[in-house]
Amino acid sequence: MNNSSDVRESIKSKVPSVLATNPRLVMFLVLVVVSTVLSRGVFLSPSNIHNMLRQYSTIGIMAVGQTVVILLAGVDLSQGSMMALVSMVVAYLNVNGFGIVLPLVVGLLVGALGGLFSGTIITKGKVPPFIATLAMASICRGLATLITQSRPIYGLSKELLVFGRDTIGGIGIQVIIWASVGLLGIFMITRTVYGRGVYAVGGNEKSAHLSGINVQKVKLLGYAFSGICAAIAAIVITSRMDMGGPYVNANDNVQSIASVVIGGTSFAGGRGSVSGTILGTVIIAMINNLMNLMLINPYIQQGIIGAIIVVTVTLNQRKARTE
């Protein structure tokens, strides 16, 4: 009896400290309560939660790759345009009789090579990540529109539609893909030598170089991984929409960055986690879901998300200065 009471007391004593050190967890819990009350219970319905996760799976996948780049004190503004390019390439190959395997492989290669190209410009050319990835975004968007002169590609095979429309055990495959990419990102950052290199380079690039870490290699792999995540997201969204589009989800890049920032990763580099980003993506999804349930104008929603990014970055910087 004493043991059980001791356990309860231990849990009660730990809960306040956990909440105090995890403001994102507090935000999440508050959003659950507010969303449930304002939606009169609709928010907590299994169908609504499942639909919410399915809708934000592509942003969640992108955000995992974006986390690695931001941990390196960089940013990838080309993810959204890379999605458009991969979407067009995959759809074009699929509808022209190349089956399913080749389009998927080529799509992933396009994402990886695009990320490597951005990383090369940054590491070899010493171009700031903001400029390098913005230029890459322009290149990708131009190539995406060039493939079919801005016209969407329809008529995808049933095999390709599996990734964005089918379920396994009642769970959407795109949600399973997001979870798999997230687990891979967590493992890569927390359990590998490369992950330690990412934190070292992001924390202090010169010190990392002096300690024997190949800074250029770490950055190149980081941007390549971000490109691959964008390619995976492109495959999912292409499957879900049943078309390859040169302008698919143009605002997803902003949403992926917002997820990373709200998840606690610092733009200064070296601080943050993929698990925090996953929670950040869920928070973004919840905010948008609540605004949809309340029938708030989509344009106003974009402004609210932008304001949240500004507030979160400001709070993160203040916290960093006090530590």
Short descriptors:
two-stranded antiparallel ribbon; ABC transporter involved in vitamin B12 uptake, BtuC; 76% helix; 1% strand; single chain
Structural features, described:
The protein starts with a helix and ends with a helix. The chain has a two-stranded antiparallel sheet. It is mostly helical and 323 residues long. It has helices spanning 2-21, 23-38, 46-55, 57-71, 79-95, 101-123, 129-147, 158-165, 173-190, 193-203, 205-210, 215-241, 252-262, 274-293, 298-322; strands at residues 167-168, 171-172. Helix 4 packs across helix 13. It has 15 helices and two strands. The protein is globular and about 55 Å long. The chain has a single domain (54-314), classed as Orthogonal Bundle (ABC transporter involved in vitamin B12 uptake, BtuC).
Quick structural summary:
The protein is an all-alpha fold and 323 residues long.
